[in-house]
User: Fold this.
Amino acid sequence: MSAPYLAPGLPQPAPAPDGLDAPYWKGLAKGELRLQRCRACGGWQWGPEWICHHCLSFDLGFEPVAPKGRIYSYERVWHPVHPALKDQGPYLVALVEIPEAGSVRLVGNLLGDPHQAVPFGAPVEGVFEHHDDPDAPFTLLHWRLLN
Assistant:
């Protein structure tokens, strides 16, 4: 991606102050999708928690998974949710299911024509958008429909 997908001026994402999701953000910076998995039962979950949703273990870690999934749901956003987006609409936000990770679901922007048809179940791949701000670098994960 050469130019940022969304307009400048949005608040920059950052790991939570407790550090729970830091491995996710560090993975994105390296072009890798890392999701939380229980070491005790092998269950996947998202968003990150201190305890496993499946077996209640505290033995959780993050593992890399292929940034590939399928459209579970989506929304075509017509009204800006932030002043920086006042001239950018519509745009697509997708809920993407990751089969490799126990079918956990992540939200992200869906790239391409904002008027395109978005079939439920359509395959998508992740696109990493790196922002090399010298004070606070970050990376966003967007999605692109596969043909």
